[in-house]
Amino acid sequence: MILKLNKCFILILLSLASLVAFATEEHHTVQEEDLDQESTFNPGEMIMHHIADSHEWHFFNTESFNATIPLPIIVYSPQKGLAVFSSSRLIHHGSYEGYKIHHDRIFAVDAAGNEDPTVTLYDLSITKNTASLFISAMLLVIVFISVAKGYQKNAGKAPTGIQSFFEPIVIYIRDEIAVKMIGPKYERFMPYLLTVFFFIWFNNLLGLIPGGANLTGNIAVTLMLALITFIITTASGNGTYWKHVLWTPGVPLPLRIIILPIEIIGLITKPFSLMIRLFANITAGHIIILSFIGLIFLFKSIYISPLSVGFGLFMNFLELFVALIQAFVFTLLTAMYFGSAVEEHAHDEHHDHAH
Amino acid sequence: MLNSMFLEAGIAMVGAGIGAGIAALGAGLGIGRIGGSAVESIARQPSESGKIQTAMLIAAALIEGVALFGVVVCLLIALA
Q: Which residues of A touch B66 (CB under 8 A)?
């Protein structure tokens, strides 16, 4: 029961992660002039458009056909109240219900259609990243419920179907990551480690599908993941852990005073580096692939295309590997931080046993 | 006046580019050394390859994290 509650809690936290992504207060003024983007191809703009979050899910467009899924916009402002409508009303038709959109930011407008800076608004829309998060959450739930049902059905027998694909991965995470890094108390951390591993892995792979959203390359999502790791580490830290942080044993007194601020900063930099690592790796991978694709449109030459398609394909395969590696590294380092938090024995004892 | 503004923006861009290059250089050196040493130790002790690979990945991830700090700072300079 507690395990189930834990799982629900983690799922809710993960779902909240992407709401934070766009729930920032809007203060910026709308720039009036719009540079003509149609005439020249700007690779930087194209890349940023593809890796950034958006209020509509855009796949491609031709002269006559526009393959875009409009997403719901949910705006709350203390003055105007809650407004829910489709983004297709906003993106192609100027303003709607006193809001307009400019460069993927929503602004409040007055009756004349000018920007109204007195209205504070909170944008809680189901953006592309949020929609992708829902899809991946559903996929994870479907996959792992069917895996779990397999264990009910084939109790004591060999795994079948999709179960036999995931069993070695789960066992690898248990034996090679959790047991080795955390030690005998690994069991209470297994649900989180498995959730975070499969969440990151699935979302990395979904992001690599052409037209997919760059979810793990959104710093708000990685921030939430790192924050949950930080909270669990801090909450499960025992006496030995805090003693090591605050009053490092086995070190002369003057050094302890120097080490104390370093250790306290170290508490923050560990999850911070988790956040930056995942965000930067995934974003960099997407930027490289898009740069190779952008070369085609930049040179407009048939001799460049095979080269850029070849390199793009190579990078895409490399990213398939990076997707797994980053999920593994995030889980491994998370397990290491948990391990340091629950490690029981004192320092001198440790040396006797280890060497 | 306008000229010096452009110059400042240009120098900031140059700084960001050089910084990203140095970050990549440092990460390359570090990860190269780890990879080399890991291959050497696996050649000596093939039976311990699993442990060595895990240790290699942890060290590489830590180095990469530091390099990515640098890259993100450069990105902030370039975009600001």
A: 273
CB A242 within 8 A of CB A341: no
- pLDDT per residue over B4-34, tens digit each? 778 888 888 899 999 999 999 999 999 999 9
Q: Specify which residues A101 forms β-bridges with.
A: A106
Residue of chain B whose Cα is closest to the Cα of A331: B58
pLDDT in tens, A196-246: 999 999 999 999 988 888 899 999 999 999 999 999 999 998 888 888 888
B2: tokens are 């306008």
Q: Give the residue with greater pLDDT, A1 vs A73.
A: A73
Burial of B29 (C-beta count, 10 Å sphere; 0-12/13-18/19+): exposed
Domains, chain B, in order of start with CATH, read 17-79 (1.20.20.10)
Give the number of beta-carbon pairs within 8 Å between A and B. Answer: 35
Question: What are the pLDDT digits (tens) for A10-22?
Answer: 555 444 444 444 4
How far is A103 from A96, CA to CA, in rounded Å? 16
- Tokens, residue B38: 């890991």
> pTM of the entire structure?
0.79
Domain map (residue ranges) of chain A: 59-126, 128-354
Q: Do residues A185 and A342 make contact, with C-beta atoms less than 8 angstroms apart?
A: yes
Q: Is the ipTM of this complex over 0.85?
A: no
Answer whether A349 touches B (CB < 8 Å).
no
Query: In chain B, what residues touch A277 (CB-CB under 8 Å)?
Result: 61, 64-65, 68
Give the C-alpha separation, A174 to A180, whole Å: 9
HSE (side-chain half, CA atoms, 13 Å) at A324: 7
Residue A248: φ, ψ to 5°: -50, 120
